[in-house]
Amino acid sequence: MTTAKDIMHPGAKWVYREETLDRAAQLMRELNVGALPVSDQNERLCGIITDRDIVVKCVSKGHNPAETRCAELCEGTPRWIDADADVSQVLHEMESHQIKRIPVIENKRLVGIISEADVARNLTDDQVAEFVEHVYAR
């Protein structure tokens, strides 16, 4: 059985919800990623922030990323998957919520993240096609 832990990108990092968007952007640059899970003070997931969120929801509206907190852009119920979840559960979660990235949690700790690139690299052509159809076609 292939699990979330088998296909995830390990070493994901949190950004604290009270950090500014400019700090989140700096972390994204340092880590060479386009998204970061956002945590509360207890390292519990409260959302994900993307580079696109920073541009579209902050910069393009004339807001200052040095004065805007990550928490201000976190919307909706945060989605995550357990490290031991079967890959079919991973796909179901991503497809049903039309999300392109999902944090992987083990023992209440962030251990990685699964992106659409991880899906493409690790799954069959049929699984990737189904993923694309459900996430992008709607």
UniProtKB/TrEMBL annotation:
Domain CBS: 8-67, 73-130
SUPFAM superfamilies for this protein: CBS-domain pair
CDD domains on file: CBS_pair_HRP1_like
InterPro entries in the cross-refs: CBS_dom (IPR000644), CBS_dom_sf (IPR046342), Diverse_CBS-Domain (IPR051257)
Signal peptide positions on this chain: none
Keywords assigned: CBS domain
PROSITE patterns: CBS
Pfam families recorded: CBS
PANTHER family for the chain: CBS DOMAIN-CONTAINING PROTEIN, CBS DOMAIN-CONTAINING PROTEIN CBSX3, MITOCHONDRIAL
Name of this protein: CBS domain-containing protein
Biological source species: Streptomyces humicola
Taxonomic lineage: Bacteria, Bacillati, Actinomycetota, Actinomycetes, Kitasatosporales
